Amino acid sequence: MEGEQEAFPYFAGTPLAFQAAADVLLKLDDGMLLPAHSQLLASTSPVLCEMLYEAPSPVAAGDKIVLPLPGFSKLQAFDILKVRVLDRHQARVCVYPG
Fold first, then answer.
1. Dist CA 74 CA 55 (whole Å)
2. 75 dihedral zone (left: phi>0; alpha: psi -120 to 50; beta)
3. Residue 7 and residue 5: Cα distance in Å, rounded?
4. Around Cβ 21, how many Cβ atoms within 10 Å?
5. Which pLDDT value is given to residue 4?
6. What pTM value is reported for the model?
């Protein structure tokens, strides 16, 4: 249905603001685009870090970097993103004023 966004399992349990702040789209061979965060990808994978470094910058403010992931299925990409996004999000450190 138009206007609805597909649920991405690797964003489960994350705040909507975190999801909206995704600045990268990983493009699968079938054309599917998966939102992600460049800082998380770069900090957890030297390969993705290099790909992001080499990627063309977005033209306009708010545009996202598009990184092709050739040969990856949707499930494989979800597995990669689960490790890089969801596991990292769940391992966050909370600081409370004391």
1. 21
2. alpha
3. 6
4. 12
5. 41
6. 0.74
Both tokens of residue 84? 């890089």
With contact defined as beta carbons under 8 Å apart, do 41 and 24 qualify? Answer: yes
Name the token pair of 23.
């600045």
- Greater confidence, 87 or 9? 9
**3-state secondary structure string, the chain?**
CCCCCCCCHHHCCCCHHHHHCCCEEEECCCCCEEEECHHHHHHHCHHHHHHHHHCCCCCCCCCCEEEECCCCCHHHHHHHHHHHHHHHHHCCCCCCCC
Q: Does residue 71 carry a pLDDT above 70?
A: yes
Domain ranges for the chain, please list them: 36-90
What is the tens place of the pLDDT at every residue in 5-59? 457 888 877 888 888 899 999 999 999 999 999 988 888 888 889 999 998 888 7
Site of tokens 């054309």: 31
